[in-house]
């Protein structure tokens, strides 16, 4: 428990998996948490699940029993938002519905003083769109935790054009005090991780759709050769094909149908069929007794070609993000390593491979397919021409 937290009294709205996870993070750091959901029974169930999590941590020796009791004691379920007096920060973790979120923040504005910070855990909605209609839009900010919130160190901080700079610095300091690794991103579709990582999934599906390799062979290449913790197809099955496809379609649409983010028909058909991955027992993989059936072709030459092609797309998108001034280079590398467990940062990887080789892979793919998704970013071309990476 930390006693020097910038913000010590908080509200979490939404008692789903993400909401209760955020409540756990805040309480473990020493903050008082009011937990609200329109379904009070759902709040009680969430707290019962958290009690079991705490018990497992005690049994494993990761937490002392008195400390686990204190963590649970600091989380108070409330049946009305009016009961959360004196809260310094509100974090909403409700459904990804813009109208629901707007209504919530407008209601909170009537209940809480002007210096209370409003934070949204949205992973895909514009922060500016959520701030619209508020009397004090400068208090609203995106604070995007990754699931499971208690385990994942990365948190994306997303200010809108109206967010006060002191809110950004205060939230960054607060999250750092809690042991998190905060990064700051512009209010842009997908923020950092969900923008850059689209290439990890999309190019893997392109390779599959072209008949070059099966999903399990592609996953083998990315994990055995590339040292990723999970291959793209198994990860999509784990996330849920419906959820992953929805994010891809959202980012693509918000970027005005930019080819780099175009969703894949193979994934769309899985969603239409209802084969959503592990949760339905069938996705890109079939599952027997909870395990994916896999029989990859372990061809080193093929595996290296797959890895280099997917990395080329990932690095190109990372450089595109830097060219758009989405975030700093340091925050980009941190986001991809700590948010999606990449073995090393993408720009570090580009230096190892060589930007000239990355550029040639993209040019060859563009010449061969004519697909605009392989268009090299200006920053990559400049890097090769000048012999150094210059970020303005």
Structural summary, described in words:
By secondary structure, the protein is α/β, with parallel strands linked by helices. It has two domains: 9-184, NAD(P)-binding Rossmann-like Domain (Rossmann fold, 3-Layer(aba) Sandwich), CATH 3.40.50; 195-386, N-(1-d-carboxylethyl)-l-norvaline Dehydrogenase, domain 2, CATH 1.10.1040. The protein has 17 helices and ten strands. The protein has helices at 17-28, 40-59, 65-73, 98-111, 127-131, 165-177, 193-196, 198-209, 215-225, 232-239, 241-254, 265-273, 300-323, 329-339, 346-353, 355-369, 378-386, and strands spanning 9-13, 32-36, 75-78, 89-92, 117-120, 140-145, 154-159, 181-184, 287-288, 291-292. The strands form two sheets. The protein has an eight-stranded mixed β-sheet with strand order 3-2-1-4-5-6-7-8. Strands 9-10 form a two-stranded antiparallel sheet. The chain is globular.
How is this fold's topology laid out?
Layout: E1 9-13, H1 17-28, E2 32-36, H2 40-59, H3 65-73, E3 75-78, E4 89-92, H4 98-111, E5 117-120, H5 127-131, E6 140-145, E7 154-159, H6 165-177, E8 181-184, H7 193-196, H8 198-209, H9 215-225, H10 232-239, H11 241-254, H12 265-273, E9 287-288, E10 291-292, H13 300-323, H14 329-339, H15 346-353, H16 355-369, H17 378-386
Parallel strand pairs: 1-2, 1-4, 2-3, 4-5, 5-6, 7-8
Antiparallel strand pairs: 6-7, 9-10
Helix pairs in contact: 1-2, 2-3, 8-13, 9-13, 10-11, 13-15, 13-16, 16-17
